[in-house]
Design a protein that fits this description.
Jelly Rolls, five-stranded antiparallel beta sheet, mainly beta
């Protein structure tokens, strides 16, 4: 009889929550899409009022630099804390980051909103324990539509700016 190794917590979550690979990296599953619709003030076609996903990053994964044309709230659920980086739409100011995780005296908080159009990227903050991962929930309003999603093209001015000014963050391109 062959023994199988137990699943890591990340693998267990991927299977249990039926997560699929996300184009920006990591794993996701949409869990809510509002039946109500809204008309965004920026002229986009009607969108669902709100969408929500589970999003999981394993220790060796990252959410590559991308943007969404709607506000997005990230909520930490479990695992190691997450570094969530944001930058203005033109990538002209230094990226800033917040640490999502259990509340602590050093500023770690379980929730952060990324404003519509801002570039964003994320990665788990490595610890010394094996099997590091981060599970978050992301809510988007007006609701997420892949037509409103873009990643930094590798040959773009934004990518060149990132590589020149912030080379330590360019690995998330």
């Amino acid at each position: 009889m062959a023994l199988t190794a137990p699943l890591s917590r990340a693998q267990e979550l991927i299977e249990t929550l039926k997560l699929q690979p996300h184009p920006e990296g990591g794993w996701y599953k949409e869990v809510f899409r509002s039946a109500a619709t809204v008309s965004p003030a920026d002229g986009r076609a009607a969108r669902n009022a709100l969408t929500s996903i589970y999003f999981l990053l394993e220790a060796n994964q990252q959410s590559r630099w991308h943007r969404v044309l709607s506000d997005e709230a990230w909520v930490y659920l479990e695992g190691v804390p997450l570094a969530l980086w944001t930058c203005d739409a033109a990538m002209r100011t230094a990226p800033a980051h917040v640490k999502l995780g259990p509340v602590d005296a050093h500023g770690t908080r379980p929730q952060h909103a990324v404003l519509a159009g801002q570039w964003q990227a994320a990665r788990p903050i490595q610890s010394h324990s094996a099997g590091d991962y981060t599970l978050v929930a992301c809510m988007v309003g007006p609701g997420f539509d892949f037509a409103d999603f873009s990643m930094v093209p590798p040959d773009s001015d934004e990518a060149a700016s990132m590589r020149h000014h912030w080379p330590d963050l360019a690995g998330m391109l």
